[in-house]
Write a structure and sequence with these properties.
With 266 residues, this protein is mainly β. The chain has helices spanning 16-25, 74-78, 104-108, 130-135, 143-147; strands spanning 2-7, 45-54, 57-66, 84-86, 92-94, 115-117, 122-124, 153-157, 179-182, 187-195, 200-201, 206-211, 214-219, 225-231, 235-242, 245-252, 258-264.
Length: 266
């Protein structure tokens, strides 16, 4: 089965994959796989940008998000008359002729990667560039993969890809996607520790986050910053200690990453 593997550690948010998809599908009709993609309003390979934390402790994550080509595809269940089908290679395709008027196909996708074309009255999405795969001459890979200069996107047979440590987006949806991700961003807690009496940052303080999900530790660096990374979604007690001084802060990563800002160790 054909599979995408996207390594987010290599993704820098250059949008080359998104641009390549647009270049391939805007102004081009690739029937029977797809009508042309509109120039605006649809991104069959969309790079979602997430700003995480709170100033000054902020990280930006980029997650390229095409159709997940799910093994248990809700769009197929919602479609009538075989308007959505799965190819032998695993790619899920919306038949642009049979899908006309079937907006339920859009609503069925929990990932929000099926779009509605008001002009043509059809649902549309990533095809995995099936027209290129079937061409079989010079270009036999999806444009997003071909355009990715950083090697963040890999495409191939699932059994040939290195999926060790890879994860799926939103596994709770139960759709068994055929798009895998490495280095999906996990929650963090960050802050800067200072001594209000000495009016200096505190270097080398021990920072410990404890909760039902476990214990995580970090040390403040040369500017007094600490980063507790790869945290589960949970409630935490963050304790900061050095030279007999100690402060404890209650916080949570259940909803978002936490930038605690300036913390006085007194």
């Amino acid at each position: 089965m054909k599979t995408f593997l996207i390594d987010l550690k290599k993704c820098v948010g250059c949008y080359a994959c998104q641009i390549g998809c647009k270049d391939e599908h805007c102004g081009n009709c690739w029937k029977p796989y797809a009508e042309e993609q509109p120039e605006t309003g649809q991104f069959w390979m969309k790079v979602n940008e997430y700003e995480r934390g709170h100033r000054p402790h902020v990280k930006v994550a980029y997650i390229p998000t095409p159709c997940q080509h799910c093994a248990e595809a809700p769009c197929m269940d919602a479609a009538k008359d075989g308007a959505v089908y799965r190819r032998a290679d695993g790619l899920v395709i919306i038949d642009p002729a049979k899908a006309k008027g079937q907006k339920a196909i859009v609503n069925a996708c929990p990932y929000g990667v099926v779009y509605w074309n008001d002009v043509l009255d059809i649902p549309q999405k990533c095809t995995g560039c099936a027209h290129l795969i079937d061409e079989g001459d010079t270009i036999t890979v999806p444009r997003c993969f071909d355009n990715c200069v950083h090697g963040a996107i890999t495409w191939g047979d699932e059994e040939e890809l290195d999926l060790e440590g890879a994860e799926r987006l939103c596994p709770e949806y139960g759709t068994a996607p055929r798009v895998w991700y490495k280095n999906l961003p996990k929650k963090f807690i960050a802050g800067r520790v200072h001594d209000p009496v000495a009016k200096e940052v505190v270097i080398g303080a021990t920072v410990t986050a404890t909760g039902e999900a476990g214990t995580f530790t970090a040390t403040t660096n040369w500017i007094g910053d600490f980063w507790l990374r790869n945290l589960p979604d949970a409630d935490w007690t963050v304790t900061i200690e050095k030279d007999g001084k100690k402060v404890a802060i209650e916080t949570s990563t259940k909803i978002e990453d936490k930038g605690l800002g300036e913390i006085a160790l007194a």
